[in-house]
Amino acid sequence: MAPEGCALVTGASRGIGAAIARMLAGEGWPVGVNFRSDEEGASAVVSEIEAQGGQALSVQGDVADPEAVDSIFAELEQRFGPVLVLVNNAGVRADGLSMQLDDEEWEHVLATNLSGAFRTTRRALKGMMRARHGRVINIASVVGGVRGNAGQANYAASKAGLVGYTRTVAAEVARRGVTVNAVAPGLVQTELSEGIDQQRFIDAVPARRAGTPEEIAAAVRFLASDDAAYVTGITLTVDGGLTA
Amino acid sequence: MPAATQETVETTIVDAIAKLGPEAEDVTRDATFESLDIDSLDLVEVAQIVEEEFGVVLKGEDMEKLNTVGDAIDLVVARAS
């Protein structure tokens, strides 16, 4: 395994983030389970990981808050050492037709999904550069990264931004053994996707079903592994053929 | 945090650069970053160490103006005072 350090998964109290945290812990990484408000959910993820013999720590902090990012890292580094795997998963939605989105709905989604990932990555790269090893994995979306979806202009802009950010940072740090990739899930059964007209999507998915959080986590596990050392700057789409 | 004198800054910067590849004896005040094969990403790492050691923040536009090891030392000492 990689040098001594840990993994941090933002927004890991439930859904895709929780599945990623569990899977990385299964690979032997001590995992920081970041949450904004769902302390109970994060604690449950930590307990599950510990019950499986892994190590985890729940860390509160809203990635949209610039001040919070440093404290998240400080807490984790003190316990487990440098963050060598960063999974930017924390994401929010505030849907509405673009003509009707107010500034707050626009800014909040960008602040969490895109600016949050920028700040955590900037912070994490310090330790990764020093260790000459690192994995940044940004959870994007087929919405924005690959296709459009009416009513999600803010979300799509944030996710498309994340894909461009991923490529660029990958080129900047590749010669230090640090890879930066994105995973673009299609329709996945989580709380975040609630309220979306699921059947309309499922009809469009060649696999004829929604994905599971574990299927997204498995892609992250690969990108975080030593096997993926030469994979950088890509967006790995995991969508049951939705964008095929 | 140690005082940023010519000596302390020189020691810190030379050590930091030597860890990035060049032989320590080649890292002199007059050596250019180009001759040492030190690129912009390397300089970001040096800047990070300087910031931790002396609290002096160097931005991208500062770094672009630096040609030699001596330039970097002088800039940090000037900024710190």
Gap between N and C termini of chain A:
34 Å
Gap between N and C termini of chain B: 14 Å
Percentage of residues assigned to helices of chain B = 55-70%
Which percent range describes the beta-strand content of chain B?
A: under 5%
Give the largest interface: A-B, 7 and 4 residues
- The succession of helices and strands of chain A, N to C, reads EHEHEHEHEHHEHHE
Q: Give the structural class of chain B.
A: mainly alpha
Helix tally of chain A equals: 8
Rg value of chain B: 11 Å
Most strands sheet of chain B: none
The general outline of chain A is globular
Q: Estimate the mean pLDDT confidence of chain B.
A: 91
Mean pLDDT over the full residue set of chain A: 94
Using only C-alpha atoms, the radius of gyration of chain A works out to 17 Å
Strand content of chain A: 15-25%
User: How would you classify the helix and strand content of chain A by structural class?
Assistant: alpha/beta
Give the helix proportion of chain A (percent range): 40-55%
Low-confidence stretches of chain A: none
Instruction: Provide a count of the helices of chain B.
Output: 5
Shape of chain B: globular
Describe the structure.
- The complex is a heterodimer of chains A (244) and B (81).
- Chain A has 244 residues and is of the alpha/beta class.
- Chain A contains eight helices and seven strands.
- In chain A, strands 3-2-1-4-5-6-7 form a seven-stranded parallel sheet, sandwiched between helices.
- By secondary structure, chain B is an all-alpha fold.
- Chain B is built from five helices and no strands.
- In chain B, helix 1 (6-18) packs across helix 3 and helix 1 (6-18) crosses helix 5.
- Chain B is globular.
- Chains A and B meet through helix 4 of A and helix 3 of B.
